[in-house]
Amino acid sequence: MQPTHATSDGPWAEERLAGHGTAAGRICLAAGAGRRSAARVRERLPVEGIDPREGLRAAVARKTTEGTVWMPEQRLRREEALHAFTAGARAAEFAEGRRGCIREGFDADLTVFGAT
Fold it and tell me: Counting Cβ atoms within 10 Å, is residue 63 exposed (0-12), middle (13-18) or buried (19+)?
């Protein structure tokens, strides 16, 4: 799942997928619950934009395009979000032995952002 689904789909997801306020509706895009269980939250096969800054921001803040916070109890801590975008993604690709961390012999999978 992509965290940005919560920010772009939040205004309509509960009602359209399961009904506003229903248990099934509250499960929609529940990244926090997945992360805090045995499930692995991964960022792979993007449907939304691929800018990792937007995904990380969405996972931590869960602010919709209207500026409201949707399901704040599902927020991830920064460390959890970063883990999903690195070690979680490598697990999704079955690439634990060559990606997801900075280590000798691993793929050079590094992004550097300038200050703006």
Answer: middle
The predicted pLDDT at position 26 comes to 57
The structure's pTM equals: 0.66
Buried b / exposed e across 1-40, counting CB within 10 Å, b at 16+?
Answer: bbbbbbbbbbeebbeeeeeeeeeebbebbbbbebbeeeee
Q: Is 74 exposed, middle or buried (0-12, 13-18, 19+ CB in 10 A)?
A: buried
Residues 6+ apart with CB under 8 A from 100: 86, 87, 89, 90, 91, 106, 109
Low-confidence ranges of the chain (pLDDT < 50): 37-38, 43
DSSP class of residue 45 equals: S
**Which residues, listed in sequence order, are joined to residue 63 by a DSSP beta bridge?**
69
DSSP string, 52-88: HHHHHHHHHH-B-TTSPBSSGGGPPPHHHHHHHHTHH
